[in-house]
Amino acid sequence: MEDATRGPSIFEALVPIIFLIFFLWLNVLLFRDATLDGSNQVILIFSAALAAIIAQFYGVKWSSLQAGILKNINSAMPSILILLLIGALSGTWMVSGIVPAMIYYGLKILNPTILLFASCIICALVSLATGSSWTTVATVGIALMGIGKALGVSEGMIAGAIISGAYFGDKMSPLSDTTNLAPAMAGTDLFTHIRYMTLTTFPSIIITLIIFVFMGFGIGKKNIGVDVNEITTAIESTFYISPLLFIVPAVVIFLIVKKAPAIPALLAGIALAAIFAIFFQQDILRTIAGDEGGLAASIYKATLQSIYGDVSVVTNNEIVDELLSTSGMYGMLGTIWLILSAMIFGGVMDGAGMLQKITASIIKLASSTGSLVSSTALTCIFFNTTASDQYLAIVVPGKMFQKIYKDRGLAPQNLSRTLEDSGTVTSVLVPWNTCGATQSRVLLVDTLTYLPYCFFNIISPIMTIIFAYAGIKIAKLTKSSKEIVADEA
User: Fold this and answer.
1) CA distance 122 to 111
2) Are residues 345 and 323 in the same domain?
3) 62 DSSP assignment
4) Based on the structure, what is the number of domains in the chain?
């Protein structure tokens, strides 16, 4: 905003936000589950246009706004590439029998009473091991979603359990990018950050699991009206089912644990799944290809189709048919459109100085430790909503609040914990955020449908605010031997 003759007023900065919120609400009212088909994308672009028009009145040049847009889009490119690969992964893992095998064995072990609790635990462990909520949701999450649907459990409930567990693991894993980013922005070290997060994170996940246990009892008493044996028989008669198929997800998890970058690890998972499909599921590939040409031509055509396009496996069971369908990379294009539209809006708001104005106004309200932590949490949520990117929701508030925390004698782990408790976990609750858009598309559940059941993601920011106002375990700065160290008060 170097070329501006004056900065925006708080009213000018809020107008595009109010416009966006009103019309997104109207879209939900009119379009319901179809809001992500295009209506929300259009409103995001119109909101960006409104912000750009307002910015002209106080002297911001288009070049600054365009620079903000390009910067935002550039920051989202890794997420977009991963999103495309997740689409390919879901397709190849379906035709190779990996996801059907997960559903098959899961139905043999799980039941509606323990499904939500078990799903949260399983996803927490996988995400803790891999450091990636996205990979967890795109692999075991898809399988658990299928199991939940097969057992007649509400899709919002099962998605909420999956996401709660996945984001717990992502938040606490030393392998997670956000878990490394937050302490870097706050000025503390990784393991101090993780240890300090346990104080708020463990109570949040324990409350979440207790809720899922009680919800499970309620589900278990209902007549689900689904014959599990029919479903497992339909899967077994269609696919080659064997524990050998789990070699592929084991390799992907191993690569991520060994700190391989996400994109090469996902590519390895896609390639291995395609090879397994060729060896173990030739009949499926021939069916997908329509039995046109020879075996080699059918395998080639069906394998590529599973990577880029719609694939449906037809069995003698309607429930199974619904479970065994994917859209590959093509199915992710609508989500990518949404992310790009959100990045345009966030880029204009940033380039126009509107985000900075709003957050500066929030900081002025922070007088006590409790209000400071609350302001930090709200700022993280604000950036998740407006900038539409999880990393920006950590980086920008981290830079903004670092000096304030230090000036008030608060150790940096207070800031890093708040960034994670609020920035990391709430990103998935915003439909147009990169995380919310991605998980909604991967699980095929609308964000607003699973949001009420993402108990861990909702409780975490509340927990960190409660700790701050109650003065529980607030680390203070002291000077000792000319070095600043943290002592827990």
Assistant:
1) 14
2) no
3) H
4) 2
Scanning the structure block, which residue is given the tokens 């107008």? 15
Examine residue 3 and state whether it is found in any structural domain, yes or no.
no
How many angstroms separate the Cα of 307 from the Cα of each of 24, 89, 241, 359, 483? 32, 7, 21, 42, 55
Question: Residue 127 and residue 132: Cα distance in Å, rounded?
Answer: 5
Residue 480 predicted with pLDDT over 60: no
| Residue 64 φ/ψ, nearest 5 degrees | -70, -40
The model's pLDDT over 422-431, given as tens digits with 9 standing for 90+, comes to 999 999 999 8
| Whole-angstrom distance, CA of residue 187 vs CA of residue 402 | 8
pLDDT tens digit sequence for 353-369: 988 888 788 777 777 88
pTM (two decimals): 0.80
Tokens found for residue 384: 């998740």
Q: Are 159 and 450 in contact (CB under 8 A)?
A: yes
Mean of all residue pLDDT scores within the chain:
86
Q: How far apart are CA 338 and CA 379, in angstroms?
A: 22
Please give the backbone phi and psi of residue 443, each rounded to the nearest 5 degrees, phi first.
-85, -10
Strands (E), 18-171: none
How crowded is residue 483: how many other Cβ atoms within 10 Å of its Cβ? Answer: 7
Q: Is the pLDDT of residue 220 over 70?
A: no
What is the span of the domain harbouring residue 350? 10-77+332-488
